[in-house]
Fold this protein.
Amino acid sequence: MSTASNSKDPVASIQNNSYDVIIVGAGFAGMYLLHRLRKLGMSVKVFEKADDVGGTWYWNRYPGARCDVEVMEYSYSFSAELQQDWVWTTRYACQPEILRYANYVADRFDLRKDIQFNTVLTAAHYDESARRWNIETADGEHASAQFCVMATGCLSASKEPEIDGLDRYEGEWYHTAHWPKEGVDFVGKKVGIIGTGATGIQVIPVVAKQAEHLTVFQRTPNYVLEAHNRPLTPEDQAEWKGDYPRRRAQARHTPLGCLVEPNTQSALEVSAAERERTYQYHWDKGNLIGLLSSYADLVTNEEANNTVSEFMRRIVRETVKDPVTAEKLMPKDYPYGTKRPPMGTDYYATFNRDNVSLVDLRDEAIVEFTPKGIRTVDKEYEFEVLILASGFNAMTGALTAIDIRGKDNTAFSDAWADGPDTYLGVSISGFPNLFHITGPGSPSVLTNMLVSTEQHVDWITDCIAYLRDHDIASIEATPEAQRDWVAHVQEVANTTLYPRANSWYMGANVPGKARVFMPYVGGLGAYGERIDEVASKGYEGFELTPKAAQPA
Ligand code: NA7
């Protein structure tokens, strides 16, 4: 039975606030999609939980937050004027600068007038007879649209560590993904931090310089590439801006969405000395994508991967003075790159400070939070401030948090119970006229997110324009096409070392979550060719229902 015919459904039978497209989220994806759809003359409404634009960059205000793709590439390319006018100041821009940019874009393209802030979308139900989505907000507002696009972000549903007693802790505590706008004063305080993922790695060196003492609770050590961040000179800017169209076009055809041509040679084909020179070159440059692309088989061949993993471990050994601490900081049980590889500034050297200590949770597990701090199997640690850098229910969490119902009232969370099946990473069988941006099954978090975001927004916009121009009422991925795509995504993932790690790519950081490699590892360029081919064949693998065929 469709939701429209279920009279008890509070989201059904909505007549007012009617749009062509509803977008959920005003981060970089939602903002650009709004801009594109408005240019097509569509009526569009964006609902955003925060009180302003920016998405991930709005929420993650923790000290040290910055991008780890070069910002001249980690920025919109859709407007030649925008990319010429905006001036970035550092190679890896900090969060306040990226948020200023988001605000500038919102102002420049007058986006805010179609964004409703401070609004949490709680439900989205598909009305099969009207072929429209009805949505409800936490404040009980209703709206409907032919299309609903989830621009909810891959890393937006934060998760706290699965440790008892946080409610009993009497000091201040902050999750890095919900950092207070006014900041946090650590000076003279005893601070504890849980988490050494990409976030913890950025925050630890900054807080260490302020706190009286910082205790780092580490469950899994990380391979950290030194960012060697620096100001962007006028010459750097001019070099990029003089060549932007060509560089942007080229990046769209690369595997990772960055202007790095991947090496086609195996790491095992060259001498140890040559490999060393290559890794050292990328280390000195602080270029993550360069390092990952330096040999063709770093994430597919364990022996090849060992060479770069060992290089990274050697850096730890050389940097950290206390050999016991160095040993604990060295990852040994997963290949480099198979958990999201972070970049940092003075991360390992921070452990040489007298006011920083490391607790290895593999030797000394946490038992609980206490009113004063954290109790491990060995002792109680007392803190005035606790930082939780414990990550996200990545790629699916923001979507499964919404009561989404598709055809036959099928709940989205049920559809994804065994893993986030999608067709092409943009749509889900059983959920017509619903799209999601950089979702599972697309290159997404393995790539430069701004390039992947623009790729999806452009594809979805073109699709919606096509449907309008051809009087199509609904589009839905067929179960067969979805099954084949899911099989392809897994097949490609299984040719790599990625499934070996307990990463959030695999859903392994959330207890009970299906263990499936979520992003598509086949490369952004190849993926772009595939989705363009699907579109050029009249949306192959989708069922398109003309308006005339709608039930009376
Ligand atoms: P991540 O990469 O998921 O890191 C979370 C960290 O928190 C990681 O070190 C976890 O250890 C640790 N963690 C999580 N839960 C616990 C518990 N219960 N006990 C101890 N330690 C725990 O999230 P980030 O925010 O750092 O980065 C997310 C992405 O943002 C990043 O990859 C970039 O793309 C931007 P684990 O490794 O699971 O053992």
About this structure: Residues 449-469 form the longest helix (21 residues).
